[in-house]
Amino acid sequence: MGGRPLDADVRAGQIWSLMGPPGAGKSQLLQAFARRRRMVGLSVEGPVVVAEPPSLEKRLTIQRWALDLAGKKRREDIAEALSALGLWEDRRMALTNLTPGLRQAAYLLPCLLEPSDLIVIDQLADGLDPWTSDGFWTALEARCASGSAVVLSTHRVDLALRGHGLIVLGRHGGVFAGAIGDLIDRTDSEELHVETDRPELVRQISAPFVLEAEETPYGMKLTSPRGQELSARLLLEGYGSIKAVHRKRISLESAVLQMIRATDGVY
Q1: pLDDT per residue over 1-55, tens digit each?
Q2: pTM summary value
Q3: Domains, in order of start, for the chain
Q4: Which of 158, 196, 204, 250 has its CA 20 to 30 A from that of 239?
């Protein structure tokens, strides 16, 4: 993985998300966190657990695997983990007999049961249904509260927003590492939500200023590095056709995409 070096200090009690386009090296970085490959400058201390299928999957029921993972943990802890992942009622089923969604949830059991200082998850949390996702995150945050750290790759902005830190990779290397708020603050652009029934006029006025433009039910959404100037120009030149312009802080998704584009080109 080339590009500029990133400085990410993943501490106990923190969840760090990893984002970037396909081919950026997210899985390779997670393998380095899991100590399965070497990466210059990356140091990992303490035991690490990786969310993945068990090696003897065909022979295992959910309950048997949970017991093997938990070691000396109380049975109440096992029941809580199975419930958090929506697996309690199917705990006596073999892993191979589960639906794809339940099997994906089952592969996250090591994160909640196996003792570790660092938990590594490669996109497995992305496919959880909304109610299972909430239960899993609550349980994962409890693990962090007890001293574990988490590094996970995700394509879901809502999951990344629940973390403490964010690492962004581009196809040519590192783009950003730090707090989510810092990423947004480093992005100069704003989102402008324009109320109008003449989107073609908005496109014409805003063309020199805009990075992105899309039609919405109420008019247009624009992304621009010159939000204040563009807002004033729209209201002046579009008088009578543009009802209102609302400026807001750029979203995390837009900030990530802009940073990657600035480094790699179009993503």
Answers
A1: 445 567 778 899 999 999 988 888 899 999 999 999 888 778 888 899 999 888 7
A2: 0.76
A3: 15-183 (3.40.50.300), 188-249 (3.30.70.920)
A4: 250
- And the tokens for 146? 């007890």
What's phi and psi for 7, nearest 5 deg?
-115, 100
Helical axes 227-237 vs 199-206, angle rounded to 10°: 130
Burial call 162-197: b when 16+ CB within 10 Å, e when fewer? ebbbbbbbbbbbbbbbbebeebbeebebbbbebebe
Calculate the CA dihedral of residues 158, 161, 164, 169 and round it to 10 degrees.
Answer: 90
Task: Collect all residues with Cβ–Cβ distance below 8 Å to 1 and sequence separation of at least 6.
Answer: 24, 25, 28, 29, 39, 169, 173, 174
- What is the C-alpha to C-alpha distance for residues 126 and 124, in angstroms, rounded to an integer? 5
